[in-house]
Design a protein that fits this description.
The protein is an alpha+beta fold and about 220 residues long. The strands form five sheets. The protein has a five-stranded antiparallel β-sheet with strand order 7-10-11-12-13. Strands 1-2 form a two-stranded antiparallel ribbon. A two-stranded antiparallel ribbon has the order 3-4. The model has no long low-confidence stretch (mean pLDDT about 90). The chain contains eight helices and 13 strands. It folds into two domains: about 5-105, 434 Repressor (Amino-terminal Domain) (Orthogonal Bundle); about 115-219, no CATH class. The radius of gyration is 23 Å and the shape is elongated. Helices cover about 30% and strands about 25% of the residues.
Length: about 220
């Protein structure tokens, strides 16, 4: 799509004239023309109507001026992965796997209100980051950001000193975590995971290969 003129591209893709589009969103043809030349942009309510009509995010209508990131899991968002409200409007804060039709799908987020709402949850994440930093693990950079991750995404299999292979997380649970590069260089990364009960730190190569457990600590 031509980012310089997304509304025009969408209109043409849907086979609409400027007059036809204007009638659908309750504006004049001249208004549509000014949007397409970049002279003006639609107001907020009209952007919502256009978003619903073309089934794209407002970010796309504006020429994708910002990179959208899911505030829950941290994945990059586009029109195919952005969540929607019950009304059908896009919610550009979350992906469709973390938030769907007015509800958070991850149990950790369903409980965030117990922690004092969004502000309280952010404070809780900073507390967990501080606890990771207080471990002073060699090679682990300063932990500044944590995301909510599903267990199935980060549940690696470790070889214990006894030789037994095991997984320590629950595929169906959610955790606060992140991946950080080792400060010593090389391809090895640190993986972090935390719940209300524990902190876990591991290292691994690309794609989770050759994982090693560094620390598992009760909070």
């Amino acid at each position: 799509m031509n980012k310089k003129n997304p509304i025009q591209e969408l209109r043409l893709t849907h086979g609409l004239s400027q007059d036809e589009l204007a009638k659908k969103v309750f504006v004049t043809r001249q208004a549509v023309s000014r949007w397409e030349t970049g002279e003006t942009i639609p107001n907020t309510e009209t952007l919502k109507l256009l978003s619903r009509l073309f089934d794209v995010s407002i970010n796309t209508l504006l020429g994708s001026p910002r990179e959208m990131i899911c505030r829950c899991c941290g994945m990059t968002l586009d029109d195919a992965t952005t969540s929607k409200e019950i009304s059908g409007e896009f919610n550009e804060d979350y992906c469709k796997w973390c938030y769907r039709e007015g509800e958070f799908t991850l149990d950790f987020w369903q409980r965030y209100a117990e922690l004092g709402g969004q502000e309280g949850f952010e404070q809780f994440k900073q507390q967990i980051a501080s606890e990771f930093n207080a471990l002073h693990i060699e090679g682990l950079p300063q932990v500044e950001e944590l995301n909510v991750l599903t267990g199935s995404y980060i549940n690696l299999e470790y070889t214990l000193p006894t030789g037994v292979k095991t997984k320590l997380l629950n595929d169906h649970a959610t955790y606060l975590g992140n991946q950080l590069p080792c400060t010593f260089g090389g391809s090895r990364c640190f993986g972090l995971a935390a719940s209300m009960q524990f902190l876990m730190v591991c290292t691994y190569e690309a794609n989770g290969e050759d994982p090693e457990l560094v620390l598992y600590k009760r909070r």
